[in-house]
Amino acid sequence: MNCLMLTAKNHSIPLSDGNRIPIIGLGTYGDPRTTPKGTARECVKLAIDVGYRQFDGALVYFNEHEVGQAIREKITDGTVRREDIFYCGKLWSTFHPPELVRPALERTLKTLQLDYVDLYIIELPMAFKPGDKFYPKDKNGKYIYHETDLCATWEALEACKDAGLTKSLGVSNFNRRQLELILNKPGLKHRPVSNQVECHPYFTQPKLLEFCRQNDIVIVGYSPLGTSRDASWVNLKCPPLLEDEVLVSIGKKYNKSPSQVALRFNVQRGVVVIPKSFNPQRITKNFQIFDFSLTDDEMELIEELNKNIRFVELLMWSDHPEYPFHDDY
Ligand code: NAP
């Protein structure tokens, strides 16, 4: 796939199951405590007008109803058809036991008021105590984990695809070993088409990207702009990505911002990006990445910015037996 050819109107890339994914999508996680109600809805509608066709959401973002409502409103007003939109939903860690998988997806569909999602992914490879308490803790404040059987969860997901509730299946925050667990599962019926992981110029994921390329798995890069730098969950030892001098100076050459350069870098190497913004100007700007391209030298320069430090470390779960980030990749 030559990603240099992608345009604002035509920017989807193939998935291994025959479906396609738009190479840019709008991330929809905003802190529910500080984001006014209705924001996600307005932003998704604007994004569709701007040209975004992919939306990355989750039940645990607490605004999935707004995202669904916005998509439905833009279908009703004739701007798009359902088949033009790509929605990715996520199976949360308290719903890993096979019998809870389909009800969790059905809950997402009911929240969205849509008949299917385009992609449904296991949000984390770590199971928590099953139930409606999304962050179960004991009386000492310690997270309560659950035995994790990723292959059993995957089989339940395969049944959801067969039932037409999702078009494609993927994973998120999986390391190589966890991907291999699924890929080598006896009787595997549907392969994971994507792995959503942190990916940006300060964390370029060279090894995981190569492994995924070899196995026809698309990398979807989350936090492609270097996160919101919210101290409550982001590792702030890593400097602000968008202030990087290399990104700034390359941007000047093309009259582009560091954020547009960071997004273009991933797009040009076939990594899907899902920048989040709830600001109309930034939503619009972040999509303007199809009218310039980076030279091979510039791609290499940006590649060299890799610091191999994660903004999203998930250290509060580092004692979980399936914590994914102890491994090299
Ligand atoms: P991000 O997209 O890298 O950055 C978002 C932050 O950058 C927001 O604070 C946003 O503020 C700001 N921003 C957006 N455009 C900008 C621009 N042009 N210039 C300067 N600042 C800009 O970070 P993220 O939200 O962590 O990741 C994106 C999406 O990935 C999430 O929304 C979610 O859908 C997904 N995600 C998934 C996982 C997972 O475990 N699977 C983990 C993290 C994130 P404004 O809104 O004010 O513009």
UniProtKB/TrEMBL annotation:
It comes from the Eukaryota. One of its GO terms (molecular function) is Delta4-3-oxosteroid 5beta-reductase activity. Residues 24-306 form the NADP-dependent oxidoreductase domain. The record marks 90 as: Lowers pKa of active site Tyr. Gene3D superfamilies: NADP-dependent oxidoreductase domain. One of its GO terms (biological process) is bile acid biosynthetic process. The active site is at 61 (proton donor). Signal peptide: none annotated. Substrate binds at residue 146. Belongs to the aldo/keto reductase family. This is NADP-dependent oxidoreductase domain-containing protein. It comes from Pygocentrus nattereri (Red-bellied piranha).
